[in-house]
Amino acid sequence: MAVSLFPSSLLMTAFLFSSMILFAFPTMIESWQTGATTTRHYQFDIKMTNVTRLCKTKSIVTVNGQFPGPEIVVREGDRVVVKVVNHVPYNISLHWHGIRQLLSAWADGPAYITQCPIQSGNSYVYNFTVVGQRGTLWWHAHISWLRATLYGPIIILPKLGIPYPFSKPYKEVPIIFGEWWKDDTEAVINQALQTGGGPNISDAYTINGLPGPLYNCSAKEIFKIKAKPGKTYLLRIINAALNDELFFSIANHSLTIVEVDAVYVKPFTVNTLLIAPGQTTNVLLTTKAEYPNANFFMEARSYATGQGTFDNSTVAGMLEYKNPTSLSSSSFNKSLPFFKPILPALNDTSFVTNFTKKLRSLASAQYPANVPQMVDRRFFFTVGLGENPCPENHTCQGPNGTMFAASINNVSFVMPTTALLQSHFAGESRSVYASDFPIMPLTPFNYTGSTPPNSTFVTNATKVLVLPFNTSVELVMQGTSILGAESHPLHLHGFNFFVVGEGFGNYNPAKDPARFNLVDPVERNTVGVPPGGWVAIRFLADNPGVWFMHCHLEVHTSWGLRMAWLVLDGSLPSQKLPPPPSDLPKC
Ligand code: C2O
């Protein structure tokens, strides 16, 4: 039997979208309730679709012909079953970013880590349960750069009858940032990896797929929130951009941050927020008490710390107050003045530090922060850029004629040609990966100094770090300045972690731990390693499987800034990864 699943606020959201953009077609095919759990069934048909932006039509990879892709809407505790059918000439794999995947590593999705990709003409059913999470997450393709167009929101409502720990919003609005590329992004990254040079950059940023009026030939492609006065809106903000952290602000309005990465935080109010690729942020927006006789731009643009070129353009949407009693009949009354927000400078790291320091777990009795107080294993990872030598008889476009690379502890991760989890489970891992990922740099140097180490070349290997079940882990990630100090949003699959400390310069193990926050640190799945600085996280390895960890700037991931943890089974039956589903794709 089908059950009704959307609270009125979400129906309103769906209505809001269908009135302006192809966003909310019902892709959910049914939902079943058995006992306490509801199962939400979706069918995702991967197909090519023509989309026009900036006066140019392009054939892009989509789910069900929608761009951005469909919303998944569930409640905490629900089972989600997504049948993915690949009708395009690319290998496909989808990842449910931020979902814990407790005992369901087979459904996590990173290609060649937990599964082989779904080949053209084939299908795979992702099947997982949402446990202990509520808020906003998202799904995206997890192979090459196909997530450029294959992404959509995951909205996890609290269990039935459980309120938000903030006042009930009048409406909920997903806001997904993306990058629009006129070029074919697969060609862009393939060429960059061939030449060793930096890839091209995007042509525009988008809000819910729309670049907005600040670009040439894009005036009508604008996302609008049609605001009523005196109401509170919950904006579910997602950064799905490939390569850019973004500042976001709405003119003359403040934003109260209430949740990040599907974990409630202590509310705080800002004019501008920062969101890295992979991260999600829920904010409350309270509209003006009366019709203001003005409209307001919302804008996002890059926070960029690297030395290369980046897309320095600005996406704009509109917070539109449309007075129903006014005589204007057009959808946007151009005679009204409009205001634009003031965003921080493109490289404003002190703004970013100030902002991230405000993020604290709610840490209430109902939503405790279960920070590991004891640590079983400590790890120290350097993260940053490096080089590979140019192959003979090649000309390379990387630094000084070399090829760009990126690494963790100087290991640039080489993608295997079969899935790590599959080969582990089958006991056939010998020829696929090594288990000796370095727990700290083999040759320490002044990581954030101006003198580079003796060699800036990386080593290339497929290595994992093995953790016994329930290991309590402390990991310090240290940014390096080789080829420039740059911010790296690191994402860990399969776990949330607590951000217990961060700082600039080199991490000092004698002094810094004394200042760690073990009481209410923010809990998340993606954290920025500050440019020329470090961040310390803790997590409990309570989920058996192979778990990818990587920079969520896609270009850095492609260059090798990625690794995997292998978390072993525990001794109890409830601590063992079940066997793979029978339709798990083969390589
Ligand atoms: Cu959002 Cu491994 O990714």
Automatic annotation (TrEMBL):
Q: Kind of enzyme, top EC level?
A: oxidoreductase
**What GO MF terms are annotated?**
copper ion binding; hydroquinone:oxygen oxidoreductase activity
Top-level taxon of origin: Eukaryota
Which cofactor does the UniProt annotation name?
A: Cu cation
Q: Which residues form the signal peptide?
A: 1-31
Q: Which GO terms describe its cellular component?
A: apoplast
| GO biological process entries | lignin catabolic process
Q: What is its main location?
A: secreted
The chain positions of domain Plastocyanin-like read 46-159, 172-323, 444-569
Q: Which PROSITE patterns match?
A: MULTICOPPER_OXIDASE1, MULTICOPPER_OXIDASE2
Where in the cell is the protein located?
Answer: Secreted, Extracellular space, Apoplast
Cofactor binding annotation? Binds 4 Cu cations per monomer.
Return the similarity comment: Belongs to the multicopper oxidase family.
Q: What does this protein do?
A: Lignin degradation and detoxification of lignin-derived products.
Could you identify this protein by its name?
A: Laccase
